[in-house]
Amino acid sequence: MTTNLTYRQQTLVQLLSNQKFDVIADVGCDHGYIGATLLTKSIAKQLLFIDVSQPSLQKAQTLCQKLNLTSCNFLVQDGLGESLCDCAVIAGMGGKEIISVLTNAKKLPNTLLLQPMKNTPNVREYLCKNYHVDKDFTIFEGGKFYDVLLCTKGSDDLSQLEMQFGKTNLQQPTSQFAQFIDRQIDKYEKIVQNTMDKRANQTLNQLKLCKKEIENAKNI
Ligand SMILES: C[S@@+](CC[C@H](N)C(=O)[O-])C[C@H]1O[C@@H](n2cnc3c(N)ncnc32)[C@H](O)[C@@H]1O
To answer: Structural domain tally of the chain?
Structure first.
């Protein structure tokens, strides 16, 4: 039996595929597809499957049994807690929940692979103090846009636009990201026309600056 990963999950696994870790924690593992694939591909020697929900963790346990995966530990807990790992994958959770998991961790791992569902600028702001952002880009799947961040311990100094939109998106923009910004501009132009809302207007100005950066980066 193999696991059929979505494009989002494949992208996450791919980002770690040229590295080897002793211990990876899949925090908020749910079905366990990401962690199980990392083990199957020998990217990690050992996998900590963590979920705050027992029924979710049970799905990961059942999957690992079916795949005959050993070297797994299963923990029902809120976040990393006292667990130690070299790398933590925290995907499919809200940005504020991710920040809370990292803030409450006994020891921060050297590598982080994050995929916040919302509030990504808050996550970036938090990360800058303890991590260098190696990759930070947006992917598109099933009508939705997802932010993906790969970070290693250190620090970073992101510009205001990088904080808002992601470093890699600005430096090496993809057509998907350009499409995302165009859609956002359309959306905010309508809001500003209808409501004259000041914050919406600020967001619109940021989006237009981002579009300019994308066009400049494409011309290099
Ligand atoms: C949408 S699923 C994501 C599954 C998988 N990580 C993925 O991206 O495909 C989110 C999971 O995170 C778990 N979760 C939410 N907050 C958590 C926390 N603080 N600690 C551990 N697990 C958490 C939920 O129970 C749920 O199973």
So the answer is: 2
